[in-house]
Amino acid sequence: FLLWKGKLSIQISCPLQSGNIQDYNVFWFQQKPSKSPAFILKHANNGKIDQSSSFGARFVPIRDADTNAYVLQIQKVQTDESATYFCLAEGDYFQTAVSGSGTRLIKPESSDVHALCLVEDFYPGLIEIKWSAAGKDITEGVTSGQVTLNGDGTYTTSSILTVSRDFFNSVNPIQCSVSHESSGSKTERKLPTEREGEVV
């Protein structure tokens, strides 16, 4: 794409491979070279939009029922918004979603895979999310989201793991572990690999 500062509005489409887009929450992220993915917004399945303070109202989420796709509209695109944009869909509590290389503006294709570990509706707001592969902790390529207060007094947070596609497919299992410090509970979720046909 050619970007004219302040002139062009674009739409980035992210088709859902299975299921109905109306049933899922969708998260949009932006990734610039050599930087971790940055959270843009969450478009909940009830229509509510939770937007990061780092991204303004020019970033508008749309659900396109005709193509069963999530769409991110960026109005009046700025020059420094050349990046990779990708979406992650989340359905049930503590569901892990995996995306492919995303949609790139200007930049060449990426070989990275991004995994989202989302934890919702917990209380109190003290929680720890860790990533591991083959039993060893992963600390590089991890972006921790903020713990946000929900309207009902519970909390939501997330963590994103960015790894190379080769690493993702060669190490089994890659796992997200969540520990709720106050209750002492721990939950683990393994990520499917592309060989299992789960990467969208």
TrEMBL record:
The keyword Membrane belongs to this UniProt entry's keyword annotation: yes
Domain of life where this protein originates: Eukaryota
Any single Gene Ontology cellular-component annotation: membrane
Subcellular location(s) per record: Membrane
SMART domains: IGc1 (SM00407), IGv (SM00406)
Compositionally skewed regions (Basic and acidic residues) per UniProt: 186-200
Alphabetized UniProt keyword annotations: Immunoglobulin domain, Membrane, Receptor, Transmembrane, Transmembrane helix
Main subcellular localisation: membrane
Region annotation (Disordered) ranges: 178-200
Domain called Ig-like: residue spans: 1-99, 117-192
Pfam families in alphabetical order: C1-set, V-set
Protein name: Ig-like domain-containing protein
Species this protein is from: Naja naja (Indian cobra)
Taxonomic lineage: Eukaryota, Metazoa, Chordata, Craniata, Vertebrata
